[in-house]
Amino acid sequence: MNINIEKNSPIADLDTGFAEEVIKKIRKYVNDRSKMAGHPLRYYNFAMGCQMNFHDSEKISGMLSLMGYEETRDESEADFIIYNTCTVRENADQKVYGKLGYLKHYKAKNPNLIIALCGCMMQQPEVIQKIKTSYRQVDIVFGTFNLHKLPELVLEHLESGSQIIDIWEKHEGIYEDLPIIRENPYKASVNIMYGCNNFCSYCIVPYVRGRERSRNPEDILKEIRHLADRGIKEVMLLGQNVNSYGKNLETKVTFPELLRMANEVEGIERIRFMTSHPKDLSHELIMAMKECKKVCNYIHLPVQSGSSRILEKMNRHYTKESYTALIEEIRKEIPDILISTDIIVGFPGETDEDIEDTIDVIKKCGFCNAFTFIYSKRTGTPAAAIEDKTPESLKKERFQKVLKELNETVGIIHSQFVGKTLRVVPEEVNKQDETLLTGRSDNNLLVHFKGDPVLIGREVPVLIKESKTFYLLGEALI
Ligand code: SAH
Ligand code: SF4
Ligand code: F3S
Fold this sequence. Notes:
Layout: E1 12-13, H1 20-37, E2 42-47, H2 51-66, E3 70-71, E4 80-85, H3 90-109, E5 114-119, H4 125-134, E6 140-142, H5 150-160, E7 164-166, E8 180-181, E9 187-191, E10 193-194, H6 205-209, E11 213-214, H7 217-229, E12 234-238, H8 255-263, E13 270-274, H9 283-291, E14 298-300, H10 308-313, H11 320-333, E15 338-345, H12 352-365, E16 369-374, H13 392-415, E17 421-429, E18 436-441, E19 446-450, E20 460-467, E21 472-476
Bound molecules: S-adenosyl-L-homocysteine, iron/sulfur cluster and FE3-S4 cluster.
């Protein structure tokens, strides 16, 4: 196969023997079409939502590349456009419908353009109904459980010329041999589990991603070793709730045990993971983080609300007090750890007093970063049935209040690093200022510093000179 990626490139694993027969047939079509067009056929692959989706999209790039398509970042010149959708908040859905509107014009210009949709939004029957009736320009639709079917669906579409929709209701196995093209040659995401069993009352993820399933530890470790052999230095272990890793496995392996095993893999220098649910973050995990040198001194621990009353309604299984006590316990063992969080403002029935509790938690916990969202009602979730009398304008006002508090805390945490030296792995040339490199410290702070692009992917000691609210500016000490 004439794919322009080196066989041992850290970014791609294409030679997996995946769906060979189907891929061969598609390649013939792609070759013929590209001869007629006078240029290689190109794909535009767009991911929305969380790291899970971004990682799935890396697998989509792998499959499309095997089919003979080349990547383009310019949607208007693409012959295959695919959106991997998120539906965690309503505005994510609106964004997709908006985009589909203008894709109609692209199709008018290029009748051979194939438009595909996949991901979490597609797991909802009402969305599929709408696509069937109002978005006929869409050629292929699949969901979160059958990503590996993409080649078959493409072939079916090419052979029939009709709209192909294939949505599964649940997961039917874990597919280990999917080809992949990774975004980054130095760090890679590794799925350790899929789905979620927590059913937080506001959240749609368990409905669109199904029940929790853990990958076998041997398969995970094999993948990490393979990545290390290819020059990957940093891995991000992915799951909706990594703390419940291993529960459905025949031989029980806990997440802390998995971390310790990953820590042994030679060549890997940094290990991160997300996301942790506070309800089952064990002392065993804290100790594994403390004792494993490669596990970064950073944890994302979504609190969602500081009010025990709201937390109960959210079905989070912890209280304001137990969350702050957990943060103290983590800090006692790992004093220089940094902690970030997610917060939802505007859950049905939230009062000023509840917001005060959230602000109090922000003050007590010293978060280094936070993702704050206004509650979005998701049809089918228990919270959607709770009557909500709070006007949107009041929710926005409270949201601003929470943001103001967070900006102060985040700013203070960042300013404490001025004069200190951080170990930073630069990942790219800064988009605004080409003389700067941008990277992350071990404790996940965003750092910009002047440096040669040859440093990208290598750990550099950086003396921090200046702090802005959400990032730091420094000078390389080499
Ligand atoms: N599994 C992860 C996060 C999944 S979704 C966890 O449990 O932390 C990422 C974030 O989106 C959540 O942490 C939450 O803050 C936010 N979110 C989820 N559902 C939401 C909704 N209905 N409205 C607003 N924000 C929501
Ligand atoms: Fe959603 Fe809660 Fe599961 Fe996270 S833990 S994905 S917020 S249900
Ligand atoms: Fe969105 Fe699905 Fe992730 S709903 S947040 S892309 S799991």
